[in-house]
Design brief:
- Helix content is 74%, strand content 0%.
- The relative contact order is 0.10.
- With 164 residues, the chain is an all-alpha fold.
- Helix 1 packs antiparallel against helix 2.
- Pfam families: TctB.
């Protein structure tokens, strides 16, 4: 018998994530409001198909995966050097800031939410020492794009909260 070394991969974890995503997405899809006329399930068909497809792909991926290889990939991730860990933290911060931007966009308006988003992203990429430049770029970009869209292009963006 030949001793084979297992190559680390994320297949098992990706399969579990895909199944969980499909179940949550499918549940949220089923809870969508029904159509007022015509077939009440028409708005649900496509998103439910996406959910079912995610579950099927997740099951296939989980069935073909090697759990030991996925565990080894996770162990390798934990034991990474500090540079790679810092890069992964920056990716995590970027995801958190992006989700926050999406959640705050309507309530804070375009200018404030975009300023906060850009300022946070520039701080993540260039560091806290460059906060003055980051703030200047973020405010200049936010206001100028808002002006261009609202005034010159007549495309409405969410206004400042105190402007109604």
């Amino acid at each position: 018998m030949e001793n084979k070394k297992v190559s680390p991969n994320w297949d098992a974890f990706t399969g579990i994530f895909s199944i969980a995503f499909g179940l949550i997405y499918g549940g949220m899809t089923y809870a969508m409001p029904r159509a007022a006329f015509g077939n009440p399930l028409d708005p649900i068909y496509f998103p439910m198909g996406v959910a079912v497809l995610a579950i099927i792909i997740g099951c296939i991926l989980l069935a073909k995966s090697n759990i030991k290889a996925s565990v080894q990939a996770y162990i390798n991730l934990i034991n990474e050097d500090e540079v790679k860990k810092f890069d992964r933290k920056r990716i995590l911060y970027t995801c958190i800031v992006s989700i926050g931007y999406a959640l705050l966009f309507d309530s804070l308006g375009y200018v404030i939410s975009t300023f906060l988003f850009l300022f946070a992203m520039l701080t993540i990429t260039s560091g806290i020492n460059e906060w003055k430049k980051s703030a200047l770029v973020a405010i200049a970009f936010s206001i100028s794009v808002f002006f261009i869209f609202n005034t010159l292009l007549a495309i409405s963006l969410p206004p400042l909260p105190f402007m109604g």
